[in-house]
Automatic annotation (TrEMBL):
The keyword Signal does not apply. The keyword Cell membrane applies. It holds the Pfam family MatE. One of its GO terms (cellular component) is plasma membrane. Belongs to the multi antimicrobial extrusion (MATE) (TC 2.A.66.1) family. InterPro entries: DinF-like (IPR044644), MATE_fam (IPR002528), MdtK-like (IPR048279). The chain crosses the membrane at residues 19-37, 57-80, 100-121, 141-162, 169-191, 197-217, 244-263, 275-299, 320-340, 352-373, 385-407, 413-431. It comes from the Bacteria. It is found in: Cell membrane. Keywords: Cell membrane, Membrane, Transmembrane, Transmembrane helix, Transport. It is a multi-pass membrane protein. Its main location: membrane. This is MATE family efflux transporter.
Length: 445
């Protein structure tokens, strides 16, 4: 009995099932990450304003440090997915272990630098005399959890490459729950104050890392993959991560420039800007979930030497990106009356916020395609192009954004500059995707 031929409609349905199966749990895991900081803020906030201010500074430093190393997840996902597509699971897990060993090494270096430099870092952020001691305490203690945080990133990449986004969701939920309980017990029950919050977070992060390692080690033993560190493999993981590090730093520079410009516009503008950034980050989680699915799916197709499947999956994910962007844009516009009062009651902030928020809503379809194509090229291991494309984007955005105050523009003008940034990313990524140069098949790129 012969199987039914594959039609365009059945092909789209197959891709849709894969995208949903990977993207929905990935979105849940992504949302769980910022909830850690929210729980800490809610608990520490009752200790006093200086403690909360100190937590805010330390958390910003920690989140910046960890976001710089997000390439551990991205590069590992692509490399492992290729091996999976090639049908070599032992090599896939071995590749993932190299990423985990690299995460441990980088984590040790960061801890060695962060603990002694904590006072200088806190001072550089402009902490007040009352908030600085709490920020230093939280930063020094939380630094012990950085290796675990980086292991979580790398191990998440391993499981995504293995086409598993459910386990990261379960681990994230468990970590979030443990973090909340530990914070309450240590901050109030043990009377440790902000130090208790930091230790609770460290313990939760270590627990998450252990849970991931148990899953990965079991997979390695099942498939006979070595767990020992391999110098050549670790170096290869580092080389694959360097271009993605450049890309991430360039993107962080864009966000820092935007915030600096908003601050120069005045208190009302920076307040409205922070509200928009929080919403922008939430929509980014939704779109990034599709991008994560793209990394895993594209890597697998290319590893299986299926160029046609990779192209079809890319096309379908672009359609998902456009549709998701349209839906998110409409939600932003419709939810404005509910969303804005949650953050501010200041009429001046509201008046500044509304037109800029409309710009963000209009730009969501562009963002949807950008996130998807970013994920496709990451899945293809095309990190070098992504680095150059983001540097070009930064070079275009920076002068335009810096001209906003000089030309008398306000927050809306700044967010038009942010939309220009996304448009430049769209052009660079679209040109690369259309060229087909990203398509390199085989177990390795």
């Amino acid at each position: 009995m012969t199987s039914a031929p594959t039609t365009p409609r059945t092909g789209r349905r197959r891709h849709d099932r894969e995208i949903v199966a990977l993207a929905v749990p990935a979105f849940g895991a992504l949302v769980a990450e910022p909830l850690f900081v929210m729980v800490d803020s809610a608990i520490v906030g009752h200790l006093g304003t200086p403690q909360l201010a100190g937590l805010g500074i330390a958390a910003a430093l920690l989140m910046t440090a960890v976001s710089i190393f997000v390439f551990l997840a991205y590069a590992t996902t692509a490399a492992v997915a290729r091996r999976v597509g090639a049908g070599d699971l032992p090599a896939a897990i071995r590749q993932g272990m190299d990423g985990i060993w690299l995460a441990l090494l980088l984590g040790a270096v960061v801890v060695a630098l962060a603990i002694p430099s904590a006072p200088w870092l806190v001072d550089a952020f402009g902490a007040s005399d009352t908030a600085a001691p709490y920020a230093i305490t939280y930063l020094r203690i939380s630094s012990f959890g950085i290796p675990a945080m980086l292991v979580v990133l790398a191990a998440t990449g391993v499981l995504r490459g293995l086409q598993d986004t459910r386990t990261p969701l379960y681990v994230a939920i468990g970590g979030f729950t443990a973090n909340g309980i530990l914070n309450v017990v240590l901050v109030y029950g043990a009377g440790l104050g902000i130090a208790g919050s930091a230790w609770g977070t460290v313990i939760a992060q270590v627990g998450m890392a252990v849970a991931y390692l148990i899953v990965v080690v079991r997979g390695a033993r099942r498939h006979g993959a070595s767990l020992r560190p391999d110098a050549a493999g670790i170096r290869a993981s580092a080389r694959a991560g360097v271009p993605l590090l450049v890309r991430t730093l360039s993107l962080r520079a864009v966000l820092m420039i935007a915030t600096a410009v908003a601050a120069r516009l005045g208190d009302v503008d920076i307040a409205a800007h922070q509200i928009i950034l929080s919403l922008w980050s939430l929509t980014a989680f939704a779109l990034d979930a599709i991008a994560i699915a793209g990394q895993a799916i594209i890597g697998r197709y290319l590893g299986a030497n299926d160029e046609k499947g990779a192209r079809e999956a890319c096309r379908r994910m672009v359609e998902w990106g456009i549709a998701s962007g349209v839906v998110l844009g409409l939600l932003i516009m419709l939810a404005r009356p509910i969303f804005i009062p949650l953050f501010t009651s200041d009429p001046a902030v509201k008046d500044t916020l509304l037109p800029a928020l409309l710009v963000v809503a209009v730009s969501q379809p562009i963002a949807g395609v950008v996130f998807v194509l970013d994920g496709v090229l990451m899945g293809a291991g095309d990190g070098r192009y992504l680095a150059w494309a983001m540097l070009v984007t930064l070079a275009v955005f920076a002068p335009v954004a810096l001209l906003v105050p000089a030309l008398g523009g306000g927050l809306t003008a700044l967010w038009w500059a942010m939309t220009l940034m996304m448009a430049v990313r769209l052009v660079t990524l679209w040109l690369r995707t259309r060229s087909g140069r990203w398509i390199v098949t085989g177990a390795t790129r």
